[in-house]
Write a structure and sequence with these properties.
It is built from twelve helices and no strands. The chain has a domain of 90 residues. It is elongated and about 75 Å long. The C terminus is likely disordered. This is Homeobox domain-containing protein. Belongs to the SIX/Sine oculis homeobox family. Pfam families: Homeodomain, SIX1_SD.
């Protein structure tokens, strides 16, 4: 199989003077070539290999179900900007968990790119959250586990990022953050209030330590503790 894979990869290389031969490998051999090319990161050669496969392949039905081939087609579609084709592949076939992380990244990045094109500007954290909410991961590439944990981490990351920009958000900004995170405006306001208090306390302890009052050991700021006071499951 490795030798066949190498031969197929060589056939997928550019041949400007000669047409690509008609390949007639088994489904397993095609899968091996797809995996090898995908792992190499050479999307152009992967695309050429997929293109070289005969339309009337003797095992076409098996290829249509082969995860390595489907994943390769998804990668090629993404890099070619054929997002509709990518979405169709991901939504119509159930993939193994080992493929989820990569395919989830393709799904999200494709939707981000489309949103940026429509808006004519890069997306901010709130924009990306809204895109994820509008286009949730299909169950074919997501097993539903760790949803709450991931949501909490995204919520914390979003609040931290906005805090660095403006630790005193006005009511309009609080409502916007609430809509983006799924929290209430009151929860958002409480998080910013608690974070400001903790920052002031940490700064005071650091000043005391610099003055030699022995507070150096207690000046560590626990960012996760500051965030833990938000109950993201609260309605």
């Amino acid at each position: 199989a490795p030798a066949l894979a190498l031969n197929a990869i060589e056939l997928a290389a550019p041949t400007p003077l000669l047409p690509l031969p008609t390949l007639s490998f088994s489904a397993a051999q095609v899968a091996t070539v797809c995996e090898t090319l995908e792992e190499s990161g050479d999307v152009e050669r992967l695309a050429r290999f997929l293109w070289s496969l005969p339309v009337a392949h003797p095992n076409v039905a098996e290829l249509e179900r082969c995860e390595a081939v489907l994943r390769a087609r998804a990668v090629v579609a993404f890099h070619a900007g054929r997002h509709r084709e990518l979405y169709s592949i991901l939504e119509r076939h159930r993939f193994q968990r080992s493929s989820h992380a990569k395919l989830q990244a393709l799904w999200l990045e494709a939707h981000y790119q489309e949103a940026e094109r429509l808006r004519g500007r890069p997306l901010g954290p709130v924009d990306k959250y809204r895109v994820r909410k509008k286009f949730p991961l299909p169950r074919t590439i997501w097993d539903g586990e760790q949803k709450t944990h991931c949501f909490k981490e995204r919520t914390r990351s979003l609040l931290r990022e906005w805090y660095l920009q403006d630790p005193y958000p006005n009511p309009t900004k609080k409502r916007e953050l609430a809509a983006a995170t799924g929290l209430t405006p009151t929860q958002v306001g409480n998080w910013f209030k608690n974070r400001r208090q903790r920052d002031r306390a940490a700064a005071a302890k650091n000043r005391s330590a610099l003055l030699g009052r022995g507070f150096a050991s207690s000046s560590t700021y626990d960012e996760d503790s500051a965030d833990s006071e938000i109950n993201v499951d609260e309605e």
